Amino acid sequence: MRTTIDIPDALFVRAKTQAAQKATSLKGLFVEALEEKLSAPLPSAKRRIAFPLVPSSRPGSNKLTAEKIEALDSDAEKADAS
Question: Does residue 78 form part of some domain?
Fold first, then answer.
């Protein structure tokens, strides 16, 4: 399949030089580089952060302090460990 790509001049010169050193064509170098890049495993997905739910009889009325947040976080860690 034919396609057209636009790459920086300096990168093109480096690619052409390396292809000549490897005694291959520019196409061969690009195919090899793409195959290598696409065969590498994808980075793992980022882990979602779960925020603790804060119970409240009236939403918006709960006054959170650093101590309450630490207690909730500690409770969540204990629950995760079980």
Answer: yes
pTM for the model stands at 0.50
pLDDT digits over 16-70, tens only?
Answer: 999 999 999 999 999 999 999 999 888 877 777 777 677 777 777 777 788 888 8
For residue 3, being part of any structural domain is answered with no
Domain holding 32, by residue range, is 9-39
Q: Are 54 and 62 in contact, with CB atoms under 8 Å apart?
A: yes
Three state DSSP letters for 33-70:
HHHHHHHCCCCCCCCCCCCCCCCCCCCCCCCCCHHHHH
